[in-house]
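subagent[fold] <- orchestrator: predict structure for attached chain, return tokens only, no commentary.
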Amino acid sequence: MNHKIIGTTMPVLEMQLEPGESIISEAGELSWMTASINLTTSTTAGGSGGLFGAFKRMASGGTLFMTEYRAEGQSGMVAFATKVPGEIMPIEVRPGQFYMIHRHGFLCATPGVELTIGFQQSLGAGIFGGEGFRLQKLSGSCTAWIELDGEVVTYDLSAGEALRVHPGHVGMFDSTVSFEITRIKGIKNMLFGQDGIFLAALTGPGRVWLQSLPLPNLAHAISPYIAVTGGEEAVGVGAVAGGILRGLSK
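subagent[fold] -> orchestrator:
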């Protein structure tokens, strides 16, 4: 199995599969493929262990169904494109090891991947779309490809070294990194600081991957252009921005 990442700002992951090889992704991730690729959609892929496991995966921000793309009879190609500007990162997952990734971070993986809920906490109405903050747990024995939004900044934390991060900027971190949601101290800071109320506390040892463009930040940046206030220009901008947000919500 070979792969290549095409592009920079809006990259595409292209997987070249030999006969009998397969790749697994969440439902709805496909961009294009050749005719020799067969699709099988089920709730059992991704190490879910049946319908109950699939519901747990969905609770982490994933999809109820997973899709396996398999090359039959001859080699084939399947491609997955990013939804927003960002980067695609390949990582190796070994037994006994796992990663925590943001809720929309999983793009695809080889068979043997296990994708379950890793962390979920309500952060109050209206924050993160009113759905709280979620992380997926990526484990098993596989090669996985992760989609991180915007530019990616990596930190290697030593034992006891702590980093406080706006939760939306948390892209992925090693299993050895401890994680908790903390509240910003001071009433004035919470009410007038405009930095939010909560921060994620990441404590080493381990590697942390941060993303510069959380989806809520992107939605907030384009929201002033969505409202239709009259005139063809306002309607056009609103329609385009509205289409973008509807795509992100899928």
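orchestrator: received. Logging for downstream: The first helix runs from residue 51 to 59. The chain has four helices and 19 strands.
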